[in-house]
């Protein structure tokens, strides 16, 4: 069966104008598609623009250039009426469950608020039943409905945030670092919950994170972002088996492997220097100031987006066949 495209992001840019002619290029031309029912992960260091990308896709920020199409409709050109309907279909889970829940509202009020704004239930009893159902869906129970956010642990608060995101029965959820603020022991539980809900409700996710090991657990495909650009995109398994971009290789080499024999023999790639400022990004390839393979051409020319193997894309001159003669990913591995 042919995969159905739910979201299409074309050359999306989000620049912030800081005054005195300075421009912060938080997102600088990213392109990808998300298919119905999949989880698309975006990963990168903090400051790479991944959260800004998420917020621009859902329309919290206007875009500077490019387009976001949800079911073929341009998210940034919706009428007020269309926006209202769109908000029911796309929801967001935020990083910080402490800050994203109103401390003065009960859990019942927090979860039922979107239903009231959208006038879903005329009958209060039905609405309350729906709140109870959502609490059970996320592993809480009806006794939690009359409590306040401060009475819960971090993991439970994130479950409340997920219940609120589900209140309008959306098709698509942007999860912006939903587990980063949680204890490691709780992270896997929340990831498993998201996976279960996806199966039960047929959800599609954009999962944003800085931790590649966790993104792997949930994503079907992953896009790696660096300084506002996508540098690599492929299936999750392929990215881990055969990472091509020097930045992806460095990120992966930092993940510990539980087998001490393999771990001892592994070479860790230490990235030199800090992430450059998106106000003044390097010329050519934005990664060149930290890349151990940088060549002269990397400072002069922005690398193209190349499909090195089937559905495996990378932006790096090492894989430009005109420069290196490399024609596929297996040949490309010799360059690592
Ligand atoms: Fe490194 Fe050049 Fe590839 Fe950029 S284009 S990642 S600087 S080799």
From TrEMBL:
SMART domains: AAA (SM00382). One of its GO terms (biological process) is transmembrane transport. GO terms for molecular function: ATP binding; ATP hydrolysis activity. The keyword Nucleotide-binding applies. Pfam families: ABC_tran, oligo_HPY. Keywords: ATP-binding, Hydrolase, Nucleotide-binding, Transport. Residues 7-252 form the ABC transporter domain. Its EC number is 3.6.3.-. PANTHER family: D,D-DIPEPTIDE TRANSPORT ATP-BINDING PROTEIN DDPF-RELATED, TRANSPORT ATP-BINDING PROTEIN. NCBIfam families: oligo_HPY. Belongs to the ABC transporter superfamily. This is Oligopeptide transport ATP-binding protein YkfD. It comes from Bacillus methanolicus (strain MGA3 / ATCC 53907). The lineage of its organism: Bacteria, Bacillati, Bacillota, Bacilli, Bacillales. The gene is ykfD.
């Amino acid at each position: 069966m042919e995969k159905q495209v739910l979201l299409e992001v074309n050359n999306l840019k989000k620049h912030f104008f800081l005054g005195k002619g300075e421009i912060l290029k938080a997102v600088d031309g990213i392109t990808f598609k998300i298919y119905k029912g999949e989880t698309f992960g975006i990963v990168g260091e903090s400051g790479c623009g991944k959260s800004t990308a998420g917020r621009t896709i859902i329309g919290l920020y206007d875009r500077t250039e490019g387009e976001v199409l949800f079911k073929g409709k341009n998210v940034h050109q919706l009428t007020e009426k269309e926006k209202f309907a769109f908000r029911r279909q796309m929801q967001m889970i935020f990083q910080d469950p402490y800050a994203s829940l109103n401390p003065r509202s009960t859990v019942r009020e927090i979860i039922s608020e979107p239903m009231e704004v959208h006038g879903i239930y005329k009958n209060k009893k039905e609405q309350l039943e729906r709140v109870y159902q959502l609490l059970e869906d996320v592993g809480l129970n009806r006794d939690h409905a009359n409590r306040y956010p401060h009475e819960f642990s971090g993991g439970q608060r994130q479950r409340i945030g997920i219940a609120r995101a589900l209140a309008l029965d959306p098709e698509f959820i942007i999860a912006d670092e939903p587990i980063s603020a949680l204890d490691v022991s709780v992270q896997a539980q929340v990831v498993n919950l998201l996976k279960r809900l996806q199966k039960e409700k047929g959800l599609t996710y954009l999962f944003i994170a800085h931790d590649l090991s966790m993104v792997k657990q949930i994503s079907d495909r992953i896009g790696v972002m660096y300084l506002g650009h996508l540098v690599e995109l492929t299936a999750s398994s392929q990215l881990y088996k055969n990472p091509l971009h020097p930045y992806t290789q460095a990120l992966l080499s930092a993940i510990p492997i539980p087998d001490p024999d393999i771990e001892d023999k592994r070479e860790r790639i230490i990235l030199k220097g800090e992430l450059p400022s998106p106000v003044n990004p390097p010329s050519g390839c934005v990664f060149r100031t930290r890349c151990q393979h940088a060549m002269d051409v990397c400072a002069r020319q922005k690398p193209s987006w190349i499909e090195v193997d089937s559905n495996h894309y990378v932006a790096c001159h090492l894989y430009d066949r005109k420069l290196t003669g490399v024609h596929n990913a297996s040949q490309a591995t010799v360059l690592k």
